[in-house]
Amino acid sequence: GQDALRTADGFAMARHVYAAQTLPSEFESISQYSASKLEEVERIHVFMRKLQQIEADYAKELTKLTDKTWAVEASKRDSITSMSERSEAQEAVTLRTAWECVLQEVKTRATAIDTRAKTLSIEVVQPIVEVMKELEKMQRALTAEGRLRLKELHESHSALRKVQLLYQLEKDSTDEAEAKLKRARNLPGRKEKELKRLSERYDAASKRLSSAEEVLNRHETSCQQDQHELFQKALPETVNKLRDEEVRRVTKMFNLMLTYHGLEKEYTEGVNERLCRLGEVLRLGDVDLDVQEFMAAAQHVKAGSQPSCIALINPAAKGRLVVANVAPSKSSSAPVVKWQQRHCVLMPRRLDGAAAPPSLYLFKAENSASPLKVIKLGDSSSDEDEHGHEDAARGQRCRAHTYRVHVSVYNKANCFGLRSGSEVLHFQALNENEFVTWLGAFATLEEQASPSMNLAALSSHGYPTLRTLEVTVIDARGVTRDSEYTCHVYLDSDLYARTPPSRGSSEVNPAWSSHFIFHDVAKDIVELRLVLTSKLAAIVDWVLDSEKEWVLCLPLRDIFDGDGAPLEQWHQLGTSFINSGSDTRDEPADTGRQANASLRAQARRRNSVSTAGARLSRYSGQTARSSPTIAAPPSVRLRLRKDVMRLRPVAMYADM
């Protein structure tokens, strides 16, 4: 039984010895594999470091190339309009501007590459070095610990083998003594003394074998415990730590690669965005602008001189317009309106770039060397009457402004008026699209010249309003002679519309029922004016061909302060007679608006008929006539309707 146990223990020990021989080799394979992965991280680090250095050198070379090519000084480059501003403005550009945009893009790309190289060094290269150092330190510590434990186990097994060898020697010696004792007992004739000596040898060998067995058992138990602790606890923990470090290594490397991908993506998106903007700017290239610059340089256009049509660069609008020209008639005393096509160019600034108000140039043709007329559209001083008093209402509208002219004035569509100071011109666009384009260009210049208000100023001065006025001229009564009568509708001193001629006399009232709608009436327009003439007149800026006129002035404040219901009533007109160099008007009868008599007085001073009379005398060649007496001024029936929409900012901006 003991031999069988010894045989089983031998097999078990053989298995332990085999495990002690195979597990260290497996641990060594794991350590070598981990070391190879660490070398892989080092190769990635070397690649990223060289890539970062190449990117930095490339950025420097691009910057040097741009600085050598770009003729603009570095201190003045910030004042150059950026590509995004040019693409948003949608303005035509020259070849020089396009080339500057290309250099801007390359310079910006060099800056972006340099920034990417620095970020790559900080966020990728340096973290890889830290990962390498940390992993290498941890791996070395764990490998050294595992190898130390394996060495201790190997030494323990070596000691066990020595004890096993001693035990085997003692066992062989005991077996030999036992065999001799058995043979001596089985042979007859053996002496007691010899049997006793053999028995003592066997007992001594058995004692030594027992002692050797105890030592062997202790070594085996200790070795088994050490091996169990190493194989079941220490080495698996070390392998798990190595595995965890491998997970950390792979995770960190993936994160760093994702960081690199984010840098590349951000750089690529920036490049694509800049290239799209550059493409938009290049598509705005206009060959005509370069030709115009060449012609302007060839003609040596100086400040204050009259430029040619082709020398006007970057206009706000340009194209053909039909201009109304007032000329004297050979057959009658009334002036004649002649329409002539002109090539018009609206410039937002002066050609030499100096600070100057916008101007409208009128040329005979596109190849004209000098303009026929130049209209300044900037601010002008406030008008004063003949007594030297400033007109406050007129002073509010000292800038040039445009307004729509109703088709009834000239029987022509797409007409608009332009007032700049005391000068008024009427234009007709070739089509509706041109009409909208020109009005939009003038409106843009007017908005740029107007002072802006913040929300606090708006709340104190009043939020902007959209005012709409509908005027229906129904009929008239009380006319004194048989003639054709026409009503001219003005807002302040600007002619907006007029009725067709209608026959009337002391027995028959002239009737029209003409309906006019005035959209977006400006806040600084103070009155609605109605002029009744006894002949169809070609009126441009208060030019009259009748020797007698009747005038009605209605303050818009009274109209827009009332309720929204249509108001239809008769209004009695005042009388005015035109003399050469003088203006004598009868006060109109009571219209129920004595509170606004000062406004009407201002209107008469602002729109002096003496100027029109002098112009009429110049056209007709007639001498001054005395003022006849009228028994009673006529009356006109009007239907007025108003609509006011107040524009308020939304709540999210009102509290800012």
TrEMBL record:
Coiled coil, from the record: 167-222
Biased composition (Polar residues): 619-629
Organism of derivation: Calcidiscus leptoporus
All copies of domain PH, residue ranges: 314-447
Leader peptide range in chain numbering: none
Keywords, ordered alphabetically: Coiled coil
Start and end residues of each F-BAR domain: 15-290
Matches recorded under InterPro entries: AH/BAR_dom_sf, C2_dom, C2_domain_sf, F_BAR_dom, FCH_dom, PH-like_dom_sf, PH_domain
Protein name: PH domain-containing protein
Domain (C2): residue spans on this chain: 447-571
Matches recorded under SMART domains: PH (SM00233)
Region Disordered: start-end pairs: 578-633
